[in-house]
Amino acid sequence: MTESPAACRFQSFSEPSDPSQVAPRVAALRGALAAQGLDGFIIPRADEHQGEYVPAHMARLAWLTGFTGSAGNAIVLADKAALIVDGRYTIQSAEQTDTAIITPTKLEEMPLERWIEANLSAGGKLGYDPWLHTVDGVIKLEKAVAAAGGTLVALKANPIDALWSDRPAPPAAPVKAHRADFAGESTASKLARIQEALTKAKVDALVVSDPHALAWTFNIRGGDVEHTPLPLGYAIVPREGRPTVFLAPEKVTNEAGDAIGAVGEIAAPAKLQTQLEALGAAKAKVRLDSATAASALATLIAKAGGTPDAGADPIALMKARKNEAELKGARDAHLRDGAAIVRYLAWLSREAPKGGLTEIDAVAALEAERMKTGLLKDVSFTTIAGAGPNAALPHYRVSEASNRKIEPGILLVDSGGQYEDGTTDITRTMAVGEPTDEMRDRYTRVLKGHLAISRVVFVKGTSGAQLDALARLPLWQAGLDFDHGTGHGVGSYLSVHEGPQRLSKLGTTPLEPGMILSNEPGYYKQGEYGIRIENLIVVEERVIPGGDRTIYGFETITWAPYERALIDVKLLDAGEIAWIDAYHAKIWSKLAPLVEGEAKAWLEQACLPL
């Protein structure tokens, strides 16, 4: 690679928000609410599936407030309005909205429910869209509104939709069959397992409201949202008999239609309500996924005489435990992705010190290297490329407005690719020029925490919450920490953020063989620099001679060298050094045949023993 490309196929750097539109839009919303006799309305960032990415026509929060972050809620009353976001988005929310009209509010200091209690007038009527809130979410809202002396009102139509004159059309991406050799299990086999779980749970049917679960169960993929190959739709799986999949028929390719038709029926999304009411009329007990199912679904079932049962979707755990075909696909994807990363890192090591690169250049160059594989379907999320102080923002996204030159110091790049056989996610932190002693100390402490997770063995039944502290201990010993989880689950050509497995203080699901997780501790010095090191790991069973318990450990499947210039070897013990040397030796053996020229020469030096 001689120069970085100017454009990306899968990412853009424009900032779509326009704060000048906030005042007239909020005024129009207030007028619409007053006409309905309402005193306020809640605008979540969610769509009806509670997804990480929402299609453009569901981005109501962004349309009203200008805020484009991945999480948040707005609430508009007649005389005040708030945009409630977590600490990741404190700065972004203030920049993107009109703060004279909407007050950015930190979730940690004032959650939505507490804001309602403090600001809704007694007797006030607060509206909400029941398709955008879960059953549990509505219960919390009801308590808050009651505490304020008001009434929570479920609306039949979202008032924003009538105001949004240039609202985009719903996505119409084709729904395709996922290759059997990548899926590793037939839809019929998956349905049999799901129906067995429904029998054990003593429920009559399951509403599949999570598009990830829909895609996994029926071995289909789509393109309705950014960076994740999802078809947006629903399914109803009865305890016995054939399921029904609710997808716009015109989106379903012949191959996917034939595959679904072999095991179930396909119906238009408009038929969902009719089937839910039929289940209710039959007095059925219907499982709804507490994490993703809209409150509206429960209301339809209950009003018809059935029993909505909000709880865990059994598909989530099945999907999390990857089969051998999915694991092979993940390993294969990480090999080709690793070769692309090595070519990129070699280019970066040569070009960054010259001083001409920007963060956008770094993003575009990496996407270009992945494109050269010929198999990239998308990036798995918008690439994070933070130089200097931008690296201290864990969820930074470069825009044309924020784009920094890459100068001496630290560059953090967190990225991933979507391939049909697997989803990748890797973070590497690079030194540009000579790092400071403090940078090397912090990097090495992060690396030690990363290695602690890589090397740990643990007894069956252990959860991510029980392991999370291992990644933090080297930082804690220096009075430091990081404010995100250590790792998240990863899907198989699905979402790069998959539950229920995770390495975090909140990760209560026991880790089981086949689960893929990220291992990504970090350190962030606000206004100066940030460090994160991330590999993907797979839970696997280990045999320990003389042991009498089932023991698990992690297989690392990401292949890219650590940054030698940032490693302070004096802070590492012999076991850590041996692990790094062995890992680098494996990288050389696996990737050397896949790269050539300057990239191969760079890799050889990067993989030398410490």
From TrEMBL:
Span of domain Peptidase M24: 330-541
Family, similarity comment: Belongs to the peptidase M24B family.
Domain (Peptidase M24 C-terminal): residue spans on this chain: 551-610
GO terms, molecular function: metal ion binding; metalloaminopeptidase activity
Record-level GO cellular component terms: cytoplasm
Name of the protein in question: X-Pro aminopeptidase
Domain Creatinase N-terminal residue range list: 25-153
Bias (Polar residues): 11-20
Domain of life: Bacteria
Keyword Cytoplasm: no
Keywords attached to this entry: Aminopeptidase, Hydrolase, Metal-binding, Protease
Region (Disordered): 1-21
